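Reopening this one. Same input as before:
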Amino acid sequence: MKIRRPAIKDVLERLYYKYNRRNLIKPDPLQFVYKYSKRADMEIAGLLSAVLAYGRVEQIQNSLTKLFSIIGESPYAFVKEFGPAHRKKLHVFKHRFTTGDDISDLLALLKIVLEQYGSIENYFISGYSKSDKNIIPALTIFCDSLSNRYAAKHNGHISNGLKYLLASPSRGSASKRLNLFLRWMVRDDQVDAGVWKSVDKAKLIVPVDVHMGRLCRIIGFHNNKTTTLKTAVKITENFAEMEPADPVKYDFALSRIGIVENCTGRYSPACEICELSSFCFQR
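Same output, byte for byte:
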């Protein structure tokens, strides 16, 4: 089946208008970014919320609620002042297989970043080039440079927990959670915070999770059985054909189809009223 680009773009615009609203963010972990008003706090909260965005939605919300209750009113201040006492506070934290020590290792790295660069954004753009086709080279440098900083102080060893939090494209990861963080930070609309001003949103890669991967396969944007970096790039390129300046524009709205409307890729009565039904390759 050939994808009808103009027709599907019209549907995506309607979905964007329907779902891309601040009051519909919950239960998305992005909600925790908006608990803070200062940009410095929001980017720290964004990174922590994104790297822990795996598992059941309720579990993610519970874990982030607990984490930010430990961190307190200013994530930025918590990181800037991070030391043994802060690590001890986080020792009780656990989200699935991410421990408090894993979070502490990440925050210790971010403390160095803030001391040397002033913000995560400044550190990220030190490896960013406007000539790059997409954000992948910069994200790779970001993840690998942080991992290397940790390894340099730990006899060349990087814990599995920290590797998972800094899921680098250089290790074959689709980097869904970090691409999610970049979407939150770079795009600026009713949903995405737009905290960063130095990165072109046209360079972003769609953060492909199970729901997004399934839905994009259903509408013919890829035919891979597994979600790889190559899959994420292919999906992004399909969206870029319709929205080259903002290929990640429809990510939040489409994810609502999977999460809120519970699209499983199998026919159900709800399919009859789904906006995407006429493009569904499973019908």
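So the earlier flakiness isn't reproducible anymore. For the record, The longest strand covers residues 94-95.
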